Amino acid sequence: MELDLIRRAVQHYEEHAGCKLNPKAVLFDMDGVLYDSMRFHARAWKEVADAHSLISSEDDFYMYEGRTGSSTIDELYLRSFHRKATDEEKQAIYREKSDLFNHYNDGEPMPGATDVLEKVGAYGMQRLVVTGSGQKSLIDKLEHTYPHCFSQDKMVTAFDVKYGKPDPEPYLIGLVKAGVSAHEAFVVENAPLGVRAGVAAGIFTIAVNTGPLSDEILWNEGANLLFPSMESLATHWPLLMQAVGK
Fold first, then answer.
1. 143-168 tens-digit pLDDT
2. Total domain count for the chain?
């Protein structure tokens, strides 16, 4: 990606926002951005859905990524049984899904994520996590995988939100925790619903297509920039900083 393309994306955002983009914080999704874990989430969801006679495909869970577990289960129940799940059904299914995910997950970091985090820190910008996950097993691994990059008070998880992605609420909470305005942040997302949430929050949203979905899906959700991987984002980070005058 050339500098001119990045500059045009920044200019387009600034014209729409009515103010200069001056990033002081980067809000990272977790699964599919910091961890190469979405393949295990999708596998676990699909196996549990099949066991409960819920209509689904594995791609559904890449499209649903970013939702809370409760809302994902409701979507499956509405499709399959034309009703929402009961609280008891949600608790049982999410527990089964979490157990399967923990069994399959190898905890591998996303290639290139460490480089991106280091570059963000080198430019003096805050690093936050904004995830729909409520699985403490994965959240607790952040300090081990990315030492000193994140603090508990700069994290937004399923426990912090009422609505979850694609609602902008998680990223709006992230802005509050960072103490910045929308034009003072970046979002880094791999999921369509996450991109939609970042855009709805008024934040410059960078998509990284680390999964099986087409680029077009992420562009259609309003991504300001799109990279094929975190490694590519790391490579282009200095150009992005140049484009915003950092």
1. 889 999 998 889 998 888 888 899 99
2. 2
Residue 184: what residue type?
E
What tokens were used for 180? 């910045």
117 shares a domain with 237: yes
What are the angstrom distances between the C-alpha of 106 and each of 24, 98, 109, 146, 178?
Answer: 32, 14, 9, 16, 30
* pLDDT score of 158: 82
Same domain for 205 and 237, yes or no, is yes
Structure token pair of residue 110: 């996303």
> Are both 144 and 70 inside the same structural domain?
no
Residue 195's closest CA among 170, 221, 225?
221
Work out the angle at residue 212's Cα, subtended by the Cα atoms of residues 82 and 172, and round it to the nearest 5 degrees: 70
Alpha carbon distance 228, 190 (integer Å): 10
**Rounded to 5°, angle at Cα 224 from 149 and 197:** 70
User: pLDDT tens across 27-49, in order?
Assistant: 999 999 999 989 999 999 999 99
Q: Walk across the sheet containing 185-189 and list its strands.
A: 155-156, 126-130, 25-28, 185-189, 204-208, 225-227
Whether the pTM exceeds 0.85: the reply is yes
CATH of the domain at 83: 1.10.150.240
Contact by Cβ (8 Å): 193, 67: yes
